[in-house]
Amino acid sequence: MEKSLHLEIVTPDRLVLSEKVDYVGAPGYEGEFGILPNHIPFLSALNIGSLYYKAGGKTHWIFVSGGFAEVSDNKVTVLAESAERAEDIDLERARKAKERAEQRLAQAKEKLDSARAQAALQRAMARMRVRGAA
Fold this sequence. Notes:
Helices cover 30% and strands 46% of the residues. It is an alpha+beta fold. It folds into two domains: 5-86, Sandwich (ATP Synthase, domain 1); 90-133, Single alpha-helices involved in coiled-coils or other helix-helix interfaces (Up-down Bundle), CATH 1.20.5. Strands 1, 2, 3, 4, 5, 6, 7 and 8 form an eight-stranded mixed β-sheet that branches. It starts with a strand and ends with a helix.
């Protein structure tokens, strides 16, 4: 039996990560799910949040802004709208984005404006959580 997984995280712009890992935890729409080696194949939609993986006894965090995860043959492929490693997140930029989203949410007059502001707030807060977890 295989003792590791190959994790790839891809965005429309770039390959964010490609490495052997021991475990992957991801933010699914129905809640967080975990993947160990030899997991049954499946496909899941991802929510905005924290994806983490364990490799070499360390836990690593990555912000993902939605997308999909596919598990097959000890390979986890994440296709994300955007993804950032914890160490690459600009915390000050995330704080400013959070403040702007909160202001837009308070001033939203239409349902669409409110939904966009809520999504922006969720992304900013997830980035801040991931950066804090690093």
